[in-house]
Amino acid sequence: MVNSKKYLVVLLGPTGVGKTELSLLLSKHFNAPVISCDSRQFFREMRIGTAYPSEQELAQVTHYLIGHKSVTERYSCGMFELEALELLNSIYINKDIALLVGGSGLYIDALLNGIDDFPTPNPELRKSLQHQLKTDGIESLTQQLKLLDPDYYNRVDLKNPQRVLKAVEVCLQTGRTFSSFLSQPSKSRPFIPVKIGLTMPREELYERINRRVDKMIEQGLVDEVKGLLLFRNYNALNTVGYKEIFQFLDGEINLEQAIELIKRNTRRYAKRQLTWWARDNDIKWFHPKQQTEIVEHMENICNLKI
Question: Which homologous superfamily does the CATH classification assign to the domain defined by 7-115+184-302?
Fold first, then answer.
């Protein structure tokens, strides 16, 4: 019998914590399809550097919104929100539960709460900030953001020029913090969200990240990035694991330095992810090895005994 209530279980956590492995177990146990919410795994050409699920893992359960875009295509939070909502409406015809799996906080928020009603960009201000970015670098914008909106400064990926520029633009244009737009009332959704966070001691997480980077190199990350040289200016490739190898291919650093930079920048990214979710009291946190406890929690919250 189909339940009148529909649930979206959000399996979130920092990069490298073990979301993919656990998502397979939960998907099989609850007969729930997996919707990816990893903003880098949307792109089919970026398999190795994003720790893309293997073909065997993808074949075990139904996956959506993974590898469905090319790095040459524009994809945004708003586009993801609409695509995921349409997908969920079709899933809920026959199922009561779906899994949203990933660590991209902005995309998770977009699906759960809706895209905030930001003001229409001012072309002159946008052009001025783009010129500032080009001439003075992203550091000039991050310092502005630190003064204008310290809360968002501590949460955003400071290496992402598009997000930093957007936040500064909104602050200057409206006289309000960018964060204030992120706390607007949620929009109506056809599901009840259940947030499950995966975490572990910092040293254990960092060791997992370091090992994963080494595995990426063994799997052929350098060759993958070489094959994407013609597309290096697309936004999708402005990300950890690819920027550092581009530096190596340009002769700016050696391979050993590139590997160490990837590990360091990935650890920093994981730290920012945890900061993003730190104030969300709706998240129930578990160690990835607490599989039995996670299943019991889902069954109790969703009132689904399988």
Answer: P-loop containing nucleotide triphosphate hydrolases (3.40.50.300)
